Amino acid sequence: MTRVRTAFVVAAIVIALWQALVWLTGVPHFILPSPLRVASAMRDNIELLGEHAIVTLMEIIAGLVLGTLLGVATAIHLCISKTARVFLLPVLVFSQAIPVFAIAPVLTLWLGYGVGPKILMTVLIVYFPIASAYYDGLQATPRGYLDLARSMGASKTRLMLRVRVPAAVPSLATGLRLAAVYAPIGAIIGEWVGASQGLGYLMLLANGRAKIDLMFAALAVLAVMTVALRKLVDWFCEKALTRWLPASAGAGGNDPAVR
Amino acid sequence: MMQAPTILLRGTYEMLGRQLFEHLSLQMNAGEWTCLLGPSGVGKSTILRLLAGLETGGTFAGDITASDGLSLANRVTFMAQEDLLLPWLSVAKNVCLGAHLRGEKPDFEKARKLIRHVGLEKQIDQTPDTLSGGERQRVALLRTIMEDRPVILLDEPFSALDAGTRAAMQELAADLFVGRTVLLVTHDPAEAARLSDRIFILDQSRLVETAAPDNAPIRALDDPSALHCQAQLLTILRQSV
């Protein structure tokens, strides 16, 4: 509860400083609108903001889910297949050398102005942290577990599915928490490059019409959405994925030797 | 369970160009507890891993034979200092882990009986993070016995427990593993003196047998012959340092 209170206090201080800055410098509202102006813009355009926010939220969630599934599948595939490690791993690393920003226009060119390229962009941005975190986790199965499973006569497939895949879930949770923060970036980039709806589109539109207060309002909505998504993913990781971890241990804290 | 065999390990083991032991010969009599004592790093755990058919990182030149002429594969199970309970599975499922990993139908009825026998029925559906160290090791013990193998290898299974819990676990293990060929690797002379039919000390690549007490294990905590044996073992171990 104290953490929530601290967050509110910090937000209040930041808003107060912002308001003070506007008053003291007399900066025009089309450069930096005051928090009050942004709040009233938000109130006046609540329906418009809601419409666009829902589009962006759907893109983020679709991208996050697809990217996670793809990342998990890749990590498992890399773990069981030597061929995949030889050919896929360099591709995976190289893919990170190309900024998603740079390929966004190409994706829009190929896939059009709909939600498709935005979801794909989010998938691309989410995929790598998930795949690499989970792959690391799969590689780090405690040796004792492997010995035990082998002495019990477990087949390779069952060892994978019943020991290594679940044992690496704390690493997956780490990747997922990271991905939840990255995901909105993908969707917004996609909307900037070319879109007819979504918060990124609305921000560009408002900017073009010098409605800076509306742009800030859209930004605020996006920030709230990102924080909420992060919280939701945190909650999911804790309650559904890693409920069995001892409370004191963080990700990867399932090392039996530590207890 | 199949009849427990006598096992003989003979050979030389080398790791990274260094000989850990040479022409070693270790016999574990059928249905008895054989104890292997010695300072850290002399290769006690390596012997155990060789018997279990696990990766050791070195090369072993020699053979491991059973008195009935059959291979040891799938007749051995081991238990280590870490309980190795899978933290996402309940107590009952951890006890039945072997069947779970082989894709067989687990015998939950038998597991439940064993769990009741060791006084953990209240925790049967809980995950291991809610258990104490002693309780966790009891579950690991049950998982080992559920495998129903004639040969059991124990690698310092009780060394992380407090003294009282350790004594209780030794009694439980002696009770559950009766009739099996057991190899116990430990560095605790008291444990060796309580549990063993035969005691070997592995020290600088040599294996020396020390007389175990005459009476049958498991011996009482205040058994004079066990206490005497314990003192003797400690003396030998101190000389070898």
Commentary on this structure:
Chain A has 11 helices and no strands. Chain A has helices spanning 2-25, 35-44, 46-80, 82-95, 100-111, 116-139, 143-151, 156-167, 169-193, 199-208, 212-241. The relative contact order of chain B is 0.19. Helix content of chain B is 34%, strand content 24%. Chain B is built from 8 helices and 9 strands. The mean pLDDT of chain B is 90. Chain B has helices spanning 44-52, 91-95, 97-102, 108-117, 133-146, 163-176, 189-195, 224-239; strands at residues 7-15, 18-28, 33-37, 59-66, 76-79, 151-155, 181-185, 198-203, 206-210. The A-B interface holds A 142, 144-145, 147-155, 158-159, 162-163, 166-167, 169, 243-247, 254, 256-257, 259 and B 49, 52-55, 74, 76-78, 80, 82-88, 97-98, 100-103, 127-129, 133, 136, 147.
Element layout with pairings:
The complex is a heterodimer of chains A (259) and B (241).
Chain A lengths: L1 H24 L9 H10 L1 H35 L1 H14 L4 H12 L4 H24 L3 H9 L4 H12 L1 H25 L5 H10 L3 H30 L18
Helix pairs in contact in A: 2-11, 3-4, 3-6, 3-9, 3-10, 5-6, 5-9, 6-9, 9-10, 9-11, 10-11
Chain B lengths: L6 E9 L2 E11 L4 E5 L6 H9 L6 E8 L9 E4 L11 H5 L1 H6 L5 H10 L15 H14 L4 E5 L7 H14 L4 E5 L3 H7 L2 E6 L2 E5 L13 H16 L2
Parallel strand pairs in B: 3-7, 3-8, 5-6, 6-7
Antiparallel strand pairs in B: 1-2, 1-4, 8-9
Helix pairs in contact in B: 5-6, 7-8
Question: CATH first level of chain A: which class?
Answer: Mainly Alpha
Q: Rg of chain B, please?
A: 18 Å
Order of helices and strands of chain A: HHHHHHHHHHH
Number of strands of chain B: 9
Query: How big is the Rg of chain A?
Result: 22 Å
Structural class of chain B: alpha/beta
Number of domains of chain A: 1
State the separation between the terminal residues of chain B, measured CA to CA: 41 Å
CATH architecture of chain A: Orthogonal Bundle
How do you describe this structure in short?
The complex is a heterodimer of chains A (259) and B (241). Chain A has 259 residues and is mostly helical. Chain A has eleven helices and no strands.
